[in-house]
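re: ur question from earlier - yeah i can do the single chain one, its not a big deal. heres the input i used so u can compare w yours
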Amino acid sequence: MLITTVRRIALVTLCLFSILCVATLLQSCALDRKSLVESRSRQFDSGWRFTRDSVNGAEDPAFDDSKWRSLDLPHDWSIEDIPQQVEGKTIGPFSKESPGGTATGHVVGGTGWYRKKFMLAETDTAKSISIYFEGVYMESDVWLNGQHLGYHPYGYTSFSYDISKYCKPAGEENVITVKVANNGKNSRWYSGSGIYRHVWLNVTDPLHIDQWGVYITTPNVANGKASIRIRTTISGAINGDVKVVTKIFDANGKDVNSSETPLSKASTGINTFFKDLNVTNPKLLSPDSPNLYKAEVSIVQGEKETDATVTYFGIRTIRFSAENGFQLNGTKRELKRGCVHHENGILGSAAIDRAEERRIEILKSNGFNAIRCSHNPPSEKFLESCDRLGMLVIDEAFDHWQQPKNPEDYHRFFDEWWERDLSSMILRDRNHPSVILWSIGNEIHERADPPGVEIAKKLKAKVRELDSTRPVTEAVCQFWDFPGRKWEESAAAFAVLDVDGYNYEWKHYESDHKAFPNRIIAGTESVPQDAYENWQLVERDPYVIGDFVWTAIDYLGESGIGHTMTDTGRMEFAKPWPWFNAYCGDIDLCGFKKPQSYFRDVVWRRSAIELAVHAPLPQGKTERISYWGWPDEQQSWTWPGNEGKLMDVNVYSRSPLVRLELNGKIIGEMQISDTSKLTAKFKVPYQPGILKAVAIENGKSVGSVVLATRNAPTHIHLVPDRSKIKASRNDLCYVDIQIVDDQDRLVPNAELPVTFSVSGEGEIAGVGSGNPADMTSFKGSSKKTFRGRCMVILRPSGKTGQIKLRANANGLDGGEVTVEVE
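and the output i got, formated as tokens:
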């Protein structure tokens, strides 16, 4: 009996030991694979030198760059102060002599040079090595050790160069040089300048998985099962026992399927093969549940794993039809959408990871579920954030084809480069489940002419060749560029498309549907003033799949197109100096909510009632609102100096009756109907206190909103978006600087200069406000508040510790915040 017990204990111990060994081995393999994945794609952002000048001979490895500035990428020099400030001509980064003028927000481009020195390790010997640029604006030339690697003109597509044969042996110094030219009038909006997205050094075995070499589709999702098709392309000579191992993991890290594929021996060149795997009971991806799966594909030679990649993907179905609109996973979805440019407000176009992620967080929190990337491919991190946070995307390629919109824009390169640039976008982005539509152009001049139609057909065919899982669209506008041509002529452009993009043409939806009943319409651009009309059509007509407002977030350039006027001058498209911000967004440049966004909350049924007060107009003046603008109203009942004056108050609601109260007394009640555009207008004599609006249905309150008069400012309140951040140059902390009263309430009329100081393991990456005409430096240590607030962005040094930010203003108690860097 004792012997039996001892044997049992020994057997259990042996089993536990075996399990532990297997677990340890699996963990070791996972760690080895992670290390392999990280070592093959090495971030190449740190330790660059830069000069904003035209120099000669900088491509020579022996060139002396010791006096150049040291910096980390991503980097945009157009957001930085102009080095030589000239009174009356320049302010911060802005110049009255800017070639782009109001279009680019009065910033300056020019020529910039970047250089970086690096060495390879012994383990890199005999490896395949390439350098990969996610985005450089715009015309770039790259050299390695004096050898010209290539030229890339388009500022928004990713590109790479094989540098294997030009690299020096391990331990010897290599010099990479990049020249960037942003010259002339080449953009209709703020583009930024320089290497504004990440750079990577890719180091792999000679036999390796190609860049963008893994392509994942889900051709059949039904009955509790999803078929996953993984196409893998590898390059290099296959010798001996080689296999490709494919594994699929769910969001919890559980291995849900795997396979091994032996490769043909003694083959060379490029090999592409398919592997079909099934996932049972898949978790489908949607904006509400952004479930992501992970595919690990690795090359195993003998018993050694020599290359590996990780690709995230989603399992979902998309379908578009005139009868049922847009269906995601078999359910009709109304797309609450907005257009966005690629830049990050006060950071310029620098695509720092946290900045890209934060934009999606802000849009999600304000009700958006879809984005149109206007008018170029976004950064990789932007799309990764859309995947992970649950945002649908139209990925757009071009703003022009052969015909120019500016003398030095991309039209100069289109014929030679369109296929490479379109391929770059599709190949890079086709695994992102957030992407539901490919757009081949925006407001193209030749859109309805025979040459333009032929170009559209070629572009569409190329998209289909590289990815047939998503429809193709294009944003089409009226013929403002060809006065006299009729809207009906646009049919030639629409005939090529799968989904038809309409810019500002909601009044044609119904008539076009009668003429073309199978046409699927997307409102690819609209203005805030038409939000209600557009959304009525989306909710009523299934063939209208959504509405993209221009724009979701304020952006630099197209200065002041969202302005209002109180004079009798000519209504301008854009506002002159010192305006630099388009000011047409639902969200301002710092990420704060603007008045039109509150109205949209009611339109989208996110809020029962909202309240806004129009700023008092000067005596004898009336307001005129630009096409992209919104009335000069605020969510404020703090108007000192206007006691007794009648104030225009708007109440927004879908309830049939609203009531307005001031200091507990009823001002009046008003009915709301479709003809009033969800708006009740009141005249209220101003007196400090509490203004309250109540939504009433069937005699009962279903919602209310209150505006309370603020007291005089007393101190500064600092509100960081996160109290802990990573010790990474790719992370940021956004600090909301608020002027508050003795009850810690934001004072909306406080506009005063605030100075900042920072200490610890970080720096100020940017300062700014929502003011569209405050041209003071984005890189300085002070900023004037706008409607009671401004913003400071902190960037970690890369080391752990703390960052302390202090804010001060004359006459107020200062504020301080500490951010942990881990």
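The chain has nine helices and 49 strands. not sure if urs matches, ping me
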